[in-house]
C-alpha cells in the first residue's frame, strides 16, 4: 500500500479476507509509483507443477476493479515462458520481508519491457514522508448547500434595479440573492445572522491551502469533539423544519405570500410594473398560486433534507470535511498545493503570537537562524529531505497533541 493510505481504508481490505490472511507492506519512494502490477501463483490440479502469471493494466487494488462494476483491461503473461522469470519472482519475493527495499528492475517479456520501480517498504506504518502525511489529511469547507435551507425563494424574470430594490425592500423581510435575480425570506430563525470570524478550532488545528483548510488525519480523529461542534441555533432550525406539521407549513406559506404582496404594493408606489419581475395574472397582479406552489415544493424538499442524517450532520456545524484528493499522480498540482500549505504555515508563524498549533510546532523545530529566510518552496524542500524529516517529522505530526487548549 502507498504509505499515505488511511488506516480505515486498509481495515476495509483486511476485512474482505479471513483473519491474518492479508499482509500489508507500506511503501514509499521519492518519485511516483502507480504500477497496478499483480503476481498470481497457483498449483495445477492433480499436479505439483506451479504456475506463475504476471498481470498489469487499469485495475486498482479495489473492490470496484475486481468486481463486475468496472470494465478493466489487463495484459497477462505466463512466466514459465519468460527468460527473466527468476528475476521477476525474486523482485516479488523480497516484499515478503517485514521491511526493506527493492531495486528497480527492467525485465523483458517477449516484445514488452517492464520498468519495475524501486521503493522501500515496511510492515509497520512508522513515520510516513511529509508528502504522504499531508496527502492522508482532511480539508474543511463551509457547507454551501445549506445557504438556501430554512428560506423560501422567488426567482425574478429580471434583476431589480438597485434603487428600486432598496426602496421596495426598506420595510420588507425579503432579501435579494444571486445578483438581485431572486428574493428570499427566512421562514425560521436566520442562521445567516451568525456573526464572528474564523472559528477558533479552525485557526488552531487547520492550515490554509489553495484547496481549503487542511488538518492531519490524526488531528481530525483525536480532536473530533472540538472540531466543528454542533451549533444550538442550527439544531433548533433543523428540529423546527423536520417536525413541522401541515398547519405550520400553511402559516409559513401565508406569511411568504403576504411579504410578496407587500413587495408588490411598494413596486406600484414606485411606478414599477410587477409583471416585469414576477409571474402575474391577467389583471397584472402577482400570481400567488404560482408562488404558493413553488414555496410548497421548497418546504417539502427542505423537510426531506432535514431528515437526512448526512445533511443534518453538516448543517449542524456549517462545515463539510473531505479527504485530500489524490494529488501524487499530478506532481505539478501536488507541489503547488504543498507550497501553499508551507506558505500559510510560515505566514501564521511570522505574525508573532499565533494560536495555530502546526505553526507553533514548526517554530520550535526549524533552525532559528533560517526561520525568517524560508520561502514556501524552500520549506517544502526542507521537509521533503529525508534526514530533516527524520529529525522533525515526529514532532510535527503530533502538533495537535499539546495538552493545553488553543489560545
Assembly category: single chain
Stretches with pLDDT under 50, minimum 5 residues = 403-407
- Measured distance between first and last alpha carbons: 38 Å
Roughly how many Å is the radius of gyration? 30 Å
List the total number of helices: 14
Question: Overview of this structure, please?
Answer:
The chain is of the alpha+beta class. The protein is 38% helix and 16% strand. The protein is built from 14 helices and 15 strands. The protein has helices at residues 7-14, 85-93, 130-135, 162-168, 200-205, 217-222, 232-242, 246-269, 288-306, 309-317, 331-349, 357-365, 376-384, 386-397, and strands at 26-28, 37-43, 50-57, 74-78, 99-102, 108-109, 112-113, 119-122, 138-142, 151-155, 175-177, 182-186, 207-209, 212-215, 319-323. It is elongated. Residues 403-407 have low confidence and may be disordered.
In short:
The chain is built from 14 helices and 15 strands. By secondary structure, it is α+β, with helices and mostly antiparallel strands. Strands 13-14-9-15 form a 4-stranded antiparallel beta sheet. Strands 1-8-5 form a 3-stranded antiparallel beta sheet, with no helix packed on it. Strands 2-3-4 form a 3-stranded antiparallel beta sheet, with no helix packed on it.
Comma- or semicolon-separated keywords:
elongated, 407 residues, 16% strand, four-stranded antiparallel β-sheet
Amino acid at each position: 500500500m502507498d504509505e499515505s493510505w488511511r488506516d480505515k481504508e486498509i481495515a476495509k481490505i483486511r476485512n474482505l479476507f479471513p483473519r491474518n490472511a492479508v499482509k500489508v507492506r507500506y511503501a514509499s519512494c521519492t518519485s511516483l509509483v502507480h504500477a497496478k502490477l499483480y503476481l498470481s501463483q497457483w498449483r495445477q490440479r492433480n499436479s505439483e507443477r506451479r504456475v506463475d502469471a504476471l498481470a498489469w493494466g487499469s485495475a486498482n487494488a479495489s473492490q470496484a476493479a475486481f468486481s463486475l462494476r468496472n470494465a478493466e483491461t489487463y495484459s497477462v503473461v505466463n512466466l514459465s515462458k519468460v527468460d527473466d522469470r527468476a528475476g521477476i519472482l525474486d523482485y516479488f519475493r523480497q516484499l515478503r520481508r517485514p521491511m526493506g527495499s527493492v531495486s528497480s528492475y527492467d525485465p523483458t517479456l517477449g516484445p514488452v519491457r517492464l520498468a519495475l520501480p524501486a521503493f522501500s517498504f515496511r510492515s509497520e506504518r512508522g513515520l510516513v514522508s511529509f508528502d504522504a502525511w499531508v496527502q492522508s489529511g482532511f480539508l474543511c469547507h463551509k457547507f454551501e448547500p445549506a445557504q438556501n435551507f430554512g428560506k423560501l425563494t422567488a426567482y425574478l424574470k429580471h434583476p431589480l434595479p438597485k434603487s428600486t430594490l432598496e426602496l421596495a425592500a426598506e420595510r420588507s423581510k425579503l432579501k435579494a440573492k444571486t445578483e438581485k435575480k431572486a428574493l428570499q425570506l427566512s421562514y425560521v430563525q436566520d442562521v445567516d445572522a451568525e456573526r464572528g470570524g474564523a472559528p477558533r478550532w479552525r485557526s488552531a488545528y487547520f492550515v490554509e491551502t489553495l484547496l481549503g483548510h487542511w488538518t492531519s488525519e490524526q488531528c481530525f480523529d483525536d480532536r473530533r469533539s472540538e472540531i466543528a461542534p454542533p451549533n444550538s441555533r442550527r439544531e433548533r432550525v433543523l428540529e423546527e423544519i423536520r417536525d413541522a406539521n401541515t398547519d405550520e407549513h400553511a402559516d409559513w406559506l401565508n406569511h411568504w405570500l403576504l411579504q410578496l404582496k407587500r413587495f408588490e404594493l411598494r413596486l406600484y408606489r414606485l411606478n414599477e410594473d410587477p409583471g416585469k419581475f414576477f409571474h402575474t395574472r391577467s389583471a397584472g397582479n402577482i400570481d400567488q398560486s404560482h408562488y404558493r406552489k413553488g414555496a410548497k415544493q421548497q418546504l417539502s424538499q427542505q423537510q426531506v433534507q432535514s431528515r437526512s442524517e448526512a445533511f443534518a450532520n453538516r448543517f449542524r456545524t456549517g462545515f463539510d470535511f473531505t479527504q485530500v484528493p489524490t494529488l501524487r499522480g499530478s506532481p505539478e498540482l501536488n507541489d503547488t498545493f504543498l507550497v501553499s500549505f508551507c506558505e500559510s504555515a510560515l505566514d501564521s508563524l511570522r505574525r508573532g503570537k499565533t494560536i495555530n498549533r502546526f505553526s507553533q510546532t514548526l517554530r520550535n523545530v526549524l533552525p532559528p537562524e533560517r526561520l525568517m529566510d524560508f520561502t514556501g518552496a524552500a520549506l517544502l524542500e526542507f521537509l521533503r529531505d529525508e534526514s530533516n524529516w527524520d529529525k522533525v517529522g515526529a514532532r510535527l505530526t503530533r502538533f495537535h497533541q499539546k495538552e493545553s487548549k488553543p489560545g
